[in-house]
Specification:
Distance between the termini: 44 Å
Structural class: alpha/beta
CATH class: Alpha Beta
Largest sheet: 8 strands, mixed
CATH architecture: 3-Layer(aba) Sandwich
Number of helices: 14
Strand content: 15-25%
Bound molecules: zinc ion
Helix content: 25-40%
Shape: globular
Number of domains: 1
Strand order of the largest sheet: 1-2-4-3-5-10-8-9
Number of strands: 11
Order of helices and strands: HHHHHEEEHHEHHHHEEEEHEHEHE
Length: about 375
Protein backbone atom coordinates (compact mmCIF):
# COMPACT_ATOMS: atom_id res chain seq x y z
CA UNK A 1 0.00 0.00 0.00
CA UNK A 2 1.30 3.42 -0.86
CA UNK A 3 1.39 6.33 1.53
CA UNK A 4 -1.33 7.95 -0.51
CA UNK A 5 -3.54 4.93 -0.05
CA UNK A 6 -2.92 4.94 3.65
CA UNK A 7 -3.72 8.62 3.90
CA UNK A 8 -6.97 7.99 2.08
CA UNK A 9 -7.76 5.19 4.47
CA UNK A 10 -6.91 7.37 7.45
CA UNK A 11 -9.21 10.09 6.17
CA UNK A 12 -11.96 7.53 5.77
CA UNK A 13 -11.26 6.29 9.27
CA UNK A 14 -11.51 9.73 10.79
CA UNK A 15 -14.89 10.14 9.14
CA UNK A 16 -16.13 6.78 10.31
CA UNK A 17 -17.26 7.57 13.83
CA UNK A 18 -20.47 5.62 13.38
CA UNK A 19 -18.46 2.49 12.66
CA UNK A 20 -16.98 2.65 16.12
CA UNK A 21 -20.39 2.44 17.75
CA UNK A 22 -20.93 -0.93 16.10
CA UNK A 23 -17.83 -2.41 17.73
CA UNK A 24 -18.32 -4.18 21.04
CA UNK A 25 -16.99 -2.08 23.87
CA UNK A 26 -15.48 -5.17 25.44
CA UNK A 27 -12.77 -5.23 22.76
CA UNK A 28 -11.57 -1.81 23.78
CA UNK A 29 -12.08 -2.44 27.47
CA UNK A 30 -9.97 -5.62 27.61
CA UNK A 31 -6.93 -5.08 29.79
CA UNK A 32 -3.80 -4.37 27.80
CA UNK A 33 -1.51 -7.35 28.15
CA UNK A 34 2.02 -6.94 29.39
CA UNK A 35 3.81 -10.00 28.07
CA UNK A 36 7.23 -11.00 29.28
CA UNK A 37 7.24 -10.31 32.99
CA UNK A 38 10.06 -11.11 35.40
CA UNK A 39 11.14 -14.71 35.51
CA UNK A 40 13.91 -17.06 36.49
CA UNK A 41 15.25 -18.82 33.41
CA UNK A 42 16.26 -22.45 33.63
CA UNK A 43 19.93 -22.64 34.57
CA UNK A 44 22.71 -24.08 32.43
CA UNK A 45 22.80 -27.80 33.08
CA UNK A 46 19.10 -27.92 33.96
CA UNK A 47 17.67 -30.96 32.14
CA UNK A 48 14.71 -28.89 30.96
CA UNK A 49 17.02 -26.32 29.45
CA UNK A 50 18.89 -29.14 27.72
CA UNK A 51 15.64 -30.23 26.05
CA UNK A 52 15.28 -26.82 24.37
CA UNK A 53 16.67 -26.56 20.85
CA UNK A 54 19.84 -24.50 20.50
CA UNK A 55 20.80 -22.48 17.43
CA UNK A 56 23.15 -25.33 16.47
CA UNK A 57 20.38 -27.91 16.85
CA UNK A 58 18.12 -25.90 14.57
CA UNK A 59 20.89 -25.45 12.01
CA UNK A 60 21.61 -29.18 12.01
CA UNK A 61 17.92 -30.02 11.55
CA UNK A 62 17.54 -27.54 8.71
CA UNK A 63 20.61 -28.84 6.88
CA UNK A 64 19.35 -32.41 7.28
CA UNK A 65 15.91 -31.45 5.95
CA UNK A 66 17.46 -29.68 2.99
CA UNK A 67 19.43 -32.82 2.11
CA UNK A 68 16.43 -35.07 2.61
CA UNK A 69 14.23 -32.86 0.43
CA UNK A 70 16.40 -33.54 -2.65
CA UNK A 71 16.11 -29.99 -3.86
CA UNK A 72 12.46 -29.38 -2.95
CA UNK A 73 13.39 -27.29 0.09
CA UNK A 74 15.76 -24.39 -0.30
CA UNK A 75 17.70 -23.18 2.71
CA UNK A 76 18.87 -19.56 2.63
CA UNK A 77 20.95 -17.52 5.00
CA UNK A 78 19.16 -14.17 4.76
CA UNK A 79 21.60 -12.37 7.03
CA UNK A 80 23.61 -12.66 10.20
CA UNK A 81 22.59 -12.05 13.77
CA UNK A 82 24.24 -9.37 15.88
CA UNK A 83 26.72 -11.96 17.12
CA UNK A 84 27.29 -13.34 13.63
CA UNK A 85 25.03 -16.40 13.64
CA UNK A 86 23.36 -17.30 10.34
CA UNK A 87 19.71 -16.28 10.02
CA UNK A 88 18.03 -19.19 8.28
CA UNK A 89 14.93 -19.21 6.14
CA UNK A 90 13.65 -22.37 4.46
CA UNK A 91 11.41 -22.13 1.41
CA UNK A 92 9.43 -24.97 -0.06
CA UNK A 93 6.49 -25.31 -2.46
CA UNK A 94 5.48 -24.14 -5.90
CA UNK A 95 2.03 -22.70 -5.21
CA UNK A 96 0.84 -19.15 -5.84
CA UNK A 97 -0.32 -18.63 -2.26
CA UNK A 98 2.54 -17.71 0.04
CA UNK A 99 2.64 -18.46 3.76
CA UNK A 100 5.31 -17.24 6.19
CA UNK A 101 5.90 -19.02 9.52
CA UNK A 102 8.32 -17.72 12.14
CA UNK A 103 9.30 -18.86 15.61
CA UNK A 104 11.34 -17.73 18.59
CA UNK A 105 11.60 -14.02 17.94
CA UNK A 106 11.64 -13.99 21.74
CA UNK A 107 14.65 -16.06 22.73
CA UNK A 108 13.19 -17.30 26.01
CA UNK A 109 10.06 -18.73 24.38
CA UNK A 110 11.33 -22.19 23.60
CA UNK A 111 9.09 -24.24 21.31
CA UNK A 112 8.57 -22.11 18.19
CA UNK A 113 11.51 -23.85 16.48
CA UNK A 114 10.13 -27.28 17.42
CA UNK A 115 6.76 -26.42 15.92
CA UNK A 116 8.21 -24.83 12.78
CA UNK A 117 10.57 -27.75 12.21
CA UNK A 118 7.86 -30.36 12.84
CA UNK A 119 5.67 -28.59 10.30
CA UNK A 120 8.51 -28.39 7.80
CA UNK A 121 9.29 -32.09 8.28
CA UNK A 122 5.80 -33.11 7.20
CA UNK A 123 6.15 -30.97 4.09
CA UNK A 124 9.55 -32.45 3.25
CA UNK A 125 8.35 -36.01 3.94
CA UNK A 126 6.02 -35.78 0.95
CA UNK A 127 2.94 -37.93 0.49
CA UNK A 128 -0.31 -36.99 -1.14
CA UNK A 129 -1.44 -34.38 1.34
CA UNK A 130 1.87 -32.52 1.44
CA UNK A 131 2.26 -32.67 -2.34
CA UNK A 132 -1.19 -31.28 -2.87
CA UNK A 133 -0.59 -28.42 -0.45
CA UNK A 134 2.83 -27.67 -1.92
CA UNK A 135 1.29 -27.34 -5.38
CA UNK A 136 -1.00 -24.60 -4.04
CA UNK A 137 1.19 -22.92 -1.41
CA UNK A 138 4.81 -21.78 -1.15
CA UNK A 139 6.21 -21.52 2.37
CA UNK A 140 8.89 -19.43 4.01
CA UNK A 141 9.76 -20.96 7.38
CA UNK A 142 11.99 -19.24 9.92
CA UNK A 143 12.31 -21.58 12.91
CA UNK A 144 14.57 -19.27 14.91
CA UNK A 145 14.26 -15.53 14.27
CA UNK A 146 16.45 -14.54 17.23
CA UNK A 147 19.31 -17.05 17.63
CA UNK A 148 21.41 -14.77 19.88
CA UNK A 149 18.56 -14.15 22.29
CA UNK A 150 17.76 -17.87 22.21
CA UNK A 151 21.30 -18.82 23.17
CA UNK A 152 21.30 -16.23 25.96
CA UNK A 153 17.74 -17.31 26.84
CA UNK A 154 16.47 -13.75 26.92
CA UNK A 155 13.49 -12.13 25.23
CA UNK A 156 15.49 -9.48 23.34
CA UNK A 157 18.47 -9.49 21.01
CA UNK A 158 21.86 -9.38 22.73
CA UNK A 159 23.38 -6.36 20.98
CA UNK A 160 20.77 -3.66 21.63
CA UNK A 161 18.72 -5.56 24.20
CA UNK A 162 15.60 -4.55 22.36
CA UNK A 163 12.46 -6.56 21.75
CA UNK A 164 12.72 -7.63 18.11
CA UNK A 165 8.94 -7.82 17.97
CA UNK A 166 8.80 -4.06 18.58
CA UNK A 167 11.49 -3.20 16.04
CA UNK A 168 9.78 -3.13 12.64
CA UNK A 169 9.22 0.12 10.81
CA UNK A 170 6.46 2.60 11.59
CA UNK A 171 6.20 5.78 9.57
CA UNK A 172 4.49 9.02 10.50
CA UNK A 173 1.31 8.04 8.65
CA UNK A 174 0.98 4.80 10.60
CA UNK A 175 1.69 6.68 13.82
CA UNK A 176 -1.01 9.23 12.99
CA UNK A 177 -3.39 6.39 12.21
CA UNK A 178 -2.55 4.75 15.55
CA UNK A 179 -3.34 7.97 17.38
CA UNK A 180 -6.58 8.45 15.46
CA UNK A 181 -7.65 4.96 16.51
CA UNK A 182 -6.61 5.58 20.12
CA UNK A 183 -8.78 8.69 20.19
CA UNK A 184 -11.66 6.73 18.67
CA UNK A 185 -11.23 4.15 21.43
CA UNK A 186 -11.21 6.75 24.17
CA UNK A 187 -7.47 6.46 24.84
CA UNK A 188 -5.04 9.35 25.02
CA UNK A 189 -3.02 9.94 21.86
CA UNK A 190 0.67 9.11 22.21
CA UNK A 191 3.06 12.08 22.23
CA UNK A 192 5.23 12.55 19.16
CA UNK A 193 8.25 11.61 21.29
CA UNK A 194 6.93 8.02 21.32
CA UNK A 195 7.25 7.94 17.57
CA UNK A 196 10.74 9.39 17.74
CA UNK A 197 11.71 6.63 20.17
CA UNK A 198 10.45 3.73 18.07
CA UNK A 199 13.45 1.59 17.36
CA UNK A 200 12.64 1.23 13.62
CA UNK A 201 14.54 -1.82 12.40
CA UNK A 202 17.61 -1.06 14.46
CA UNK A 203 18.63 -4.73 14.88
CA UNK A 204 20.30 -6.56 12.00
CA UNK A 205 17.83 -9.41 12.49
CA UNK A 206 14.94 -7.03 11.83
CA UNK A 207 16.65 -5.63 8.75
CA UNK A 208 17.47 -9.04 7.29
CA UNK A 209 14.00 -10.46 7.81
CA UNK A 210 12.30 -7.30 6.54
CA UNK A 211 14.16 -7.67 3.23
CA UNK A 212 13.27 -11.37 3.14
CA UNK A 213 9.63 -10.39 3.72
CA UNK A 214 9.73 -7.75 0.99
CA UNK A 215 11.07 -10.33 -1.44
CA UNK A 216 8.84 -13.25 -0.43
CA UNK A 217 5.65 -11.16 -0.19
CA UNK A 218 3.57 -13.51 1.96
CA UNK A 219 -0.23 -13.54 1.82
CA UNK A 220 -0.43 -15.07 5.29
CA UNK A 221 1.91 -14.96 8.30
CA UNK A 222 2.01 -16.81 11.61
CA UNK A 223 4.35 -15.85 14.46
CA UNK A 224 4.79 -18.48 17.20
CA UNK A 225 5.23 -17.36 20.83
CA UNK A 226 4.82 -18.46 24.44
CA UNK A 227 2.99 -16.80 27.28
CA UNK A 228 2.60 -17.54 30.96
CA UNK A 229 -0.20 -19.75 32.22
CA UNK A 230 -3.73 -18.35 32.24
CA UNK A 231 -7.28 -19.46 32.83
CA UNK A 232 -9.67 -19.89 29.93
CA UNK A 233 -12.27 -17.16 30.26
CA UNK A 234 -13.83 -17.24 33.73
CA UNK A 235 -13.67 -21.03 33.89
CA UNK A 236 -11.36 -23.03 36.15
CA UNK A 237 -9.66 -24.52 33.08
CA UNK A 238 -6.14 -23.60 32.15
CA UNK A 239 -5.62 -22.39 28.60
CA UNK A 240 -2.63 -23.79 26.75
CA UNK A 241 -3.08 -21.90 23.50
CA UNK A 242 -4.14 -18.37 22.62
CA UNK A 243 -4.68 -16.94 19.17
CA UNK A 244 -3.88 -13.28 18.75
CA UNK A 245 -4.32 -10.33 16.45
CA UNK A 246 -1.79 -7.56 17.03
CA UNK A 247 -3.77 -4.63 15.64
CA UNK A 248 -7.05 -2.88 16.26
CA UNK A 249 -9.69 -3.63 13.67
CA UNK A 250 -9.62 0.02 12.61
CA UNK A 251 -5.96 -0.25 11.57
CA UNK A 252 -6.79 -2.94 9.01
CA UNK A 253 -8.65 -3.22 5.72
CA UNK A 254 -11.92 -5.11 6.00
CA UNK A 255 -10.40 -8.05 4.10
CA UNK A 256 -7.48 -8.17 6.53
CA UNK A 257 -9.77 -8.00 9.56
CA UNK A 258 -11.93 -10.82 8.19
CA UNK A 259 -8.92 -12.90 7.17
CA UNK A 260 -7.02 -12.67 10.47
CA UNK A 261 -10.16 -13.57 12.38
CA UNK A 262 -10.76 -16.53 10.04
CA UNK A 263 -7.18 -17.68 10.64
CA UNK A 264 -7.77 -17.41 14.38
CA UNK A 265 -11.01 -19.40 14.19
CA UNK A 266 -9.34 -22.15 12.14
CA UNK A 267 -6.38 -22.30 14.51
CA UNK A 268 -8.49 -22.36 17.68
CA UNK A 269 -10.83 -25.03 16.27
CA UNK A 270 -7.91 -27.25 15.31
CA UNK A 271 -6.04 -26.85 18.59
CA UNK A 272 -9.25 -27.35 20.56
CA UNK A 273 -9.93 -30.76 19.04
CA UNK A 274 -7.53 -32.23 21.59
CA UNK A 275 -8.67 -32.70 25.14
CA UNK A 276 -5.57 -31.12 26.64
CA UNK A 277 -6.03 -27.81 24.90
CA UNK A 278 -8.49 -25.04 25.72
CA UNK A 279 -7.89 -22.36 23.09
CA UNK A 280 -8.51 -18.74 23.97
CA UNK A 281 -8.41 -15.32 22.37
CA UNK A 282 -5.42 -13.16 23.31
CA UNK A 283 -6.40 -9.78 24.82
CA UNK A 284 -6.71 -6.64 22.72
CA UNK A 285 -3.40 -5.12 21.66
CA UNK A 286 -2.55 -2.52 19.03
CA UNK A 287 1.20 -2.54 18.33
CA UNK A 288 2.08 -1.35 14.81
CA UNK A 289 5.81 -1.85 15.49
CA UNK A 290 5.42 -5.63 15.86
CA UNK A 291 6.54 -7.79 12.93
CA UNK A 292 3.17 -9.11 11.78
CA UNK A 293 1.60 -5.69 12.43
CA UNK A 294 4.10 -3.65 10.44
CA UNK A 295 3.83 -6.23 7.67
CA UNK A 296 0.06 -5.74 7.43
CA UNK A 297 0.44 -1.94 7.54
CA UNK A 298 3.14 -1.74 4.86
CA UNK A 299 5.59 -0.30 7.36
CA UNK A 300 8.81 1.11 5.92
CA UNK A 301 12.04 -0.85 5.52
CA UNK A 302 15.51 -0.11 6.94
CA UNK A 303 16.24 2.65 4.39
CA UNK A 304 12.72 4.07 4.45
CA UNK A 305 11.75 2.07 1.38
CA UNK A 306 8.42 0.27 1.03
CA UNK A 307 7.67 -3.34 0.19
CA UNK A 308 4.32 -2.14 -1.16
CA UNK A 309 2.97 -5.46 -0.05
CA UNK A 310 0.46 -6.22 2.66
CA UNK A 311 -0.45 -9.77 3.72
CA UNK A 312 -4.16 -10.56 3.86
CA UNK A 313 -3.72 -12.01 7.31
CA UNK A 314 -0.89 -12.07 9.85
CA UNK A 315 -1.38 -13.30 13.38
CA UNK A 316 0.36 -14.87 16.35
CA UNK A 317 0.01 -18.01 18.45
CA UNK A 318 0.82 -18.07 22.16
CA UNK A 319 1.48 -21.39 23.86
CA UNK A 320 1.66 -21.87 27.53
CA UNK A 321 5.18 -22.83 28.57
CA UNK A 322 5.86 -26.47 29.39
CA UNK A 323 6.10 -28.06 32.78
CA UNK A 324 9.14 -30.13 31.93
CA UNK A 325 9.24 -32.35 28.91
CA UNK A 326 5.94 -34.08 29.54
CA UNK A 327 3.89 -31.27 28.12
CA UNK A 328 6.32 -30.40 25.33
CA UNK A 329 4.60 -32.87 23.00
CA UNK A 330 1.16 -31.30 23.07
CA UNK A 331 2.49 -27.76 23.20
CA UNK A 332 4.31 -28.34 19.93
CA UNK A 333 1.43 -30.32 18.45
CA UNK A 334 -1.18 -27.63 19.12
CA UNK A 335 0.89 -25.17 17.08
CA UNK A 336 1.41 -27.65 14.27
CA UNK A 337 -2.28 -28.60 14.16
CA UNK A 338 -3.29 -24.94 14.14
CA UNK A 339 -0.83 -24.18 11.35
CA UNK A 340 -2.11 -27.06 9.25
CA UNK A 341 -5.70 -25.93 9.67
CA UNK A 342 -4.84 -22.51 8.26
CA UNK A 343 -2.67 -23.94 5.52
CA UNK A 344 -5.25 -26.49 4.38
CA UNK A 345 -7.88 -23.77 4.20
CA UNK A 346 -5.52 -21.56 2.20
CA UNK A 347 -4.63 -24.43 -0.13
CA UNK A 348 -8.22 -25.36 -0.99
CA UNK A 349 -9.59 -21.81 -0.81
CA UNK A 350 -12.02 -22.61 1.99
CA UNK A 351 -10.49 -19.95 4.24
CA UNK A 352 -12.81 -17.39 2.67
CA UNK A 353 -15.88 -19.40 3.66
CA UNK A 354 -15.04 -19.44 7.39
CA UNK A 355 -17.40 -17.32 9.50
CA UNK A 356 -15.07 -14.57 10.73
CA UNK A 357 -17.54 -13.53 13.44
CA UNK A 358 -16.92 -16.84 15.22
CA UNK A 359 -13.77 -15.07 16.45
CA UNK A 360 -15.99 -13.53 19.12
CA UNK A 361 -17.08 -17.01 20.26
CA UNK A 362 -13.53 -18.04 21.20
CA UNK A 363 -13.17 -17.79 24.99
CA UNK A 364 -11.17 -14.76 26.04
CA UNK A 365 -7.95 -15.45 27.87
CA UNK A 366 -8.76 -15.31 31.56
CA UNK A 367 -6.90 -14.55 34.76
CA UNK A 368 -3.20 -15.07 35.25
CA UNK A 369 -2.00 -18.28 36.90
CA UNK A 370 1.77 -18.36 36.64
CA UNK A 371 4.64 -16.95 34.64
CA UNK A 372 7.08 -19.72 35.49
CA UNK A 373 5.43 -22.12 33.13
CA UNK A 374 6.41 -19.95 30.19
CA UNK A 375 9.99 -20.97 30.35
CA UNK A 376 10.00 -24.68 29.90
CA UNK A 377 10.23 -26.02 33.42
ZN1 LIG B 1 6.77 -13.73 22.52
Amino acid sequence: MTNTTRRRRLTALLGAACLVLAIPLSAAADPVSKPGGPFVPPAEGDPNRAAILSADDVERELLALERRSKGAMQLDVVGQSGEGRPLYMATIGTGDERVWVQGRIHGNEPYGPDAALAFLKTLVAGGQHASQVLSEVTFAVIPMYNPDGSEAYIRQDTVHRIDLNRDWGVDQDIFDQLNAVRVQRGQNPLPQSTFDNYTQLRAVESQAFWYAFAEFRPHYMVDIHHQGTYYAGDTDDMTTFSVGISLDELMLSSDQWDTVRRMGVLAADAAGRHGAVTPTRYPYINIPEGVVSAAMLNGPGPEGEYADWTPRGAMFFESRGGIGQKSRGYLVKQNVDALWAIVDAVADGSIDTVDADRWDDILPRGGFLSNQAKFGY
